[in-house]
Structure formats: structure tokens, C-alpha cells
């Protein structure tokens, strides 16, 4: 019987599987996907590979292999910790947008904010999203703390995570306060005047604390630069580190506390 020529679609399928096999067998591919990954060549659905999937994935790793039934109920945590985290991410994204249009000098700051509201596409919207999310984050972190307290989750073995949480509350408030100066309007100037004067009453080091925060003896361009760097770099940086420790401890302390 005469041989029929292979169909074009079969040829294409063979070519695709040959290339896929080469890519999946390459060192570069296997350096990205760890053993047990479903994207690796020859993955089989075995108990060993299933546990590898959990152990090697950072996202799955956030959750323990077994989760208590009450812990997945939204009514237990009200997702307030998760909401605080979501707001932080939202503030980071909208904050980066704002940074494209803002220069932290006394001569330009207010004009840049004004231009952002009147001349930049979506500027007013994104600025307001940033501002409202900041207010909401203060509220959600505070409510999260109240929920944790109500459930007695500050008790052993979670005392350390409570302390990390208190630090996160401080950073959230400081982020709000440092952001408040940046529009360089009357409201901001007087809020910072009152705030730094209060810090000047710190026992023993009061004058030095005030000097460091103002970048001099009175509010000026140096103060704005200092608070800008604190707001966009230093405070978000330490907050991310503390959040990582916070989430890791929730996991290591045996997941969510309770039930009551
Ligand atoms: C930026 C601020 C914060 C973020 C993003 C955050 C995030 C989270 C998340 C996602 C959880 C998992 C359960 C849940 O959603 O409730 C959690 C649990 C916890 N948080 Fe926070 N948190 C923050 C601030 C705080 C504060 C201010 C405190 C207390 C002073 C605190 C103490 C705790 C404790 C003790 C747990 C374990 C709760 C339990 O086992 O029931 N956190 N946090």
C-alpha cells in the first residue's frame, strides 16, 4: 500500500512538542522551576510531587498544609490584616504614579501638586485614591489590632507577633504623617510645625530630635526633602521587612488563633 504523506497539522504538532521538550529539558528552564513543579518535564501526580509543589512554591508556602476550619471563615478575621496589606500595595502603586509628577523642593512641591490635579491625566483621581487609601489603612490596621485583641491572639505563643504588629501600627501612622507634609500647603506646614514642636519636648534629646527631623532649626526645603525620603523610601522599606516577619510568624505560630 502506498504511504500517505504526514499531514501539515501533525508535522506542526511534532515540531511544537520537540521544541517544548528541548526548552523544558534545558538548564535555564530547570533553574527557574524547582523539582516537583508541574512545569517540569515528566511531572507525575504522585504524593511526593504534590508535597514538593507546596514546599517549593512561595505562595502555597504562606499557608500551612492543614488549615483550621474556623481560620478560613471571613467572619473570624474579617480579613482586616489582608485588607491592610492590600491597601499598602495599593498605596505603593498609586504612590509611584505620583512620584513621576512631584519634585520635593519648597519652590516646586505645591505647584507640582496643583499641576497634578489640573493638568495631569488621571492625576486628581490617583491623588485622591492615594489619600483615601492612606486614611483607610490607618482605620483597617487599627480595627485589625482590635480584632486580634478581642480574640486574645496577643497571648502566647503570639506575643512577639503582637509587638511586631505594634511596630507596624507606628510605621502606618508615620507614613501618613510624613505624607501630610508633601503638598507643602498651609495645612501641611502647620501640622508639621506642631508635630516637630511636640517631638522637641522629648526628654534629654528633644532639641536634637527636632533638629534631625527639620534638617535645621526651622521648617524649610531641607525638612521637605527629609520627610520625602522618609515617606517614599525608608518607612516603606522597614514596613515591608516587618510585614514579612509578621506573616512568617502568623504561619510559624500555628496559623490563626482560636476559635474562641
Ligand atoms: C500594616 C499593618 C498590618 C498588616 C498588613 C497585618 C497583616 C496581618 C495578616 C494578613 C494577618 C493574618 C490574619 C488576619 O488577617 O487577621 C495578621 C495576623 C495578626 N496580626 Fe497583623 N497586620 C498588621 C498590623 C498589626 C497590628 C497593629 C497588630 C497588633 C498590635 C497585629 C497583630 C497581629 C497578630 C497577633 C496576628 C495573629 C492573629 C491570630 O492569630 O488570630 N497586626 N496580621
Structure characterization notes:
- It contains twelve helices and no strands.
- With 260 residues, it is an all-alpha fold.
- The chain has two domains: 39 residues, no CATH class; 179 residues, Cytochrome Bc1 Complex, Chain C, CATH 1.20.810.10.
- The longest helix is centred in the C-terminal third of the chain and has 32 residues.
- 19% of the residues are buried.
- The model has no long low-confidence stretch (mean pLDDT 92).
- Bound molecules: protoporphyrin IX containing FE (HEM).
Share in helix: 55-70%
Portion in strands:
under 5%
Radius of gyration: 26 Å
The main β sheet shows up as: none
Global structural class: mainly alpha
**Name of the level-1 CATH class of the largest domain:** Mainly Alpha
Descriptive key words:
260 residues, mainly alpha, Cytochrome Bc1 Complex, Chain C, 2 domains, extended, binds protoporphyrin IX containing FE
Set out the fold topology.
Blueprint: H1 8-25, H2 27-32, H3 47-56, H4 58-61, H5 74-77, H6 80-99, H7 109-118, H8 123-150, H9 159-181, H10 186-199, H11 206-214, H12 221-252
The chain binds protoporphyrin IX containing FE.
Residues 77, 79-82, 84-85, 141, 144-145, 148, 151, 153-154, 158, 161-162, 165-166, 168-169, 172, 243, 246, 250, 256-257 line the site of protoporphyrin IX containing FE.
How would you summarize this macromolecular structure in one to three sentences?
This protein has helices spanning 8-25, 27-32, 47-56, 58-61, 74-77, 80-99, 109-118, 123-150, 159-181, 186-199, 206-214, 221-252. With 260 residues, it is mostly helical.
Amino acid at each position: 500500500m502506498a504511504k500517505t504523506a504526514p499531514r501539515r497539522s501533525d508535522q506542526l504538532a511534532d515540531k511544537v512538542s520537540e521544541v517544548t521538550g528541548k526548552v523544558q529539558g534545558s538548564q535555564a528552564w530547570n533553574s527557574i522551576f524547582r523539582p516537583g513543579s508541574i512545569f517540569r518535564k515528566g511531572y507525575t501526580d504522585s504524593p511526593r510531587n504534590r508535597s514538593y509543589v507546596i514546599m517549593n512554591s512561595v505562595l502555597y508556602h504562606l499557608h500551612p498544609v492543614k488549615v483550621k476550619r474556623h481560620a478560613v471563615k471571613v467572619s473570624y478575621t474579617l480579613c482586616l490584616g489582608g485588607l491592610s496589606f492590600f491597601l499598602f500595595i495599593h498605596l505603593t502603586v498609586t504612590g509611584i504614579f505620583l512620584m513621576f509628577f512631584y519634585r520635593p523642593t519648597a519652590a516646586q512641591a505645591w505647584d507640582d501638586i496643583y499641576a497634578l490635579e489640573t493638568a495631569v491625566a488621571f492625576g486628581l483621581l490617583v491623588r485622591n485614591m492615594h489619600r483615601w487609601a492612606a486614611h483607610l489603612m490607618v482605620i483597617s490596621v487599627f480595627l485589625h489590632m482590635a480584632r486580634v485583641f478581642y480574640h486574645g491572639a496577643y497571648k502566647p505563643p503570639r506575643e512577639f507577633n503582637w509587638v511586631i504588629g505594634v511596630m507596624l501600627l507606628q510605621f502606618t501612622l508615620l507614613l501618613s504623617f510624613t505624607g501630610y507634609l508633601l503638598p507643602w500647603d498651609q495645612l501641611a506646614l502647620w501640622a508639621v510645625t506642631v508635630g516637630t514642636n511636640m517631638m522637641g519636648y522629648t526628654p534629654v534629646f528633644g532639641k536634637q530630635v527636632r533638629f534631625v527631623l527639620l534638617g535645621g532649626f526651622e521648617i524649610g526645603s531641607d525638612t521637605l526633602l527629609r520627610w520625602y525620603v522618609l515617606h517614599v523610601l525608608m518607612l516603606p522599606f522597614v514596613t515591608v521587612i516587618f510585614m514579612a516577619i509578621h506573616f512568617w510568624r502568623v504561619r510559624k505560630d500555628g496559623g490563626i488563633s482560636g476559635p474562641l
